[in-house]
Structure to design on (272 residues):
């Protein structure tokens, strides 16, 4: 039980540290870092590298934005297996639909109720 | 010894200077990013485990956990707490899905005064938009290659 949380902590920590090194060592903005991590998540999942990391680190690998890429890539592969050609178009977004909808709904409500910060 | 320094190329020299100048803040930043990022992931795992405990399927539990973290990120951003965490956490608050949620709410709040459609609505996806574009596009490519592999076989 405890060791499970330790693995989650370490995996998540390492992934975020890589992002921090990129921010400090290169002049990449956070938006570009997010894009890089999502695309790497997709590529590493497709090539079978990300799955063992998820098995080891669980939420430590799925909560970082690279985990979003993991869901996209897994979804599209599942989609192609089930529906063939149409799966290329439906698989990725279907697998991530809950997250995308949640981000839009909670994001919209959050922005509506929030008062702009007075400086 | 002195000659060695003179012989350095520009690149080597800038590496040498960077190594001398920035070393301690980078290590501090990495430690903070590691701890905060790891901590957010542990929260995600705790939510997943609670769901599994209440007999929810693992796949659904992971979805509930991600949705909860997106809510948390949006909520903390709307009460102006997330940006304060971000000052210390750095990438530890950007890379987790809560940071994705923050990247949606923060510009939406900022541009709300420009109207609900072209201000709030259009700017929600200022950062999250590119993430979705490149994420979904690359998953399309993966899907297409996988389909070709199945087709050829």
């Amino acid at each position: 039980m405890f060791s499970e949380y330790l693995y989650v902590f370490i995996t998540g920590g390492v992934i975020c540290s890589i992002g921090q090194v990129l921010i400090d060592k290169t002049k990449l903005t956070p938006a570009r870092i997010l894009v890089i991590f999502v695309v790497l998540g997709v590529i590493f999942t497709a090539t079978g590298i990300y799955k063992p990391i998820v098995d080891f680190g669980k939420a430590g690998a799925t909560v970082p934005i690279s985990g979003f890429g993991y869901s996209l890539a897994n979804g599209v592969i599942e989609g192609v297996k089930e529906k063939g050609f149409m799966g290329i178009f439906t698989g990725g977004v279907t697998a991530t639909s809950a997250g995308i909808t949640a981000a839009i709904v909670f994001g919209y409500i959050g922005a509506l109720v929030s008062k702009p910060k007075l400086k | 010894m002195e000659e060695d320094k003179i012989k350095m190329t520009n690149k080597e020299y800038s590496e040498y200077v960077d190594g001398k100048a920035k070393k301690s803040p980078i290590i501090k930043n990495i430690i903070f990013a590691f701890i905060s990022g790891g901590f957010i992931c542990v929260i995600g795992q705790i939510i997943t485990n609670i769901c599994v405990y209440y007999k929810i399927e693992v796949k659904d539990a992971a979805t509930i956990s991600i949705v909860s973290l997106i809510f948390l990120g949006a909520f903390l951003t709307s009460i102006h707490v997330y940006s304060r965490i971000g000052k210390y956490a750095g990438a530890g608050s950007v890379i987790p899905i809560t940071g994705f949620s923050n990247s949606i709410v923060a510009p939406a709040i900022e541009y709300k005064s420009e109207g609900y459609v072209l201000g709030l609505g259009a700017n929600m996806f200022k950062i999250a938009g590119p993430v979705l574009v490149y994420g979904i596009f690359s998953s399309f490519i993966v899907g297409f290659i996988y389909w070709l592999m199945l087709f050829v076989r």
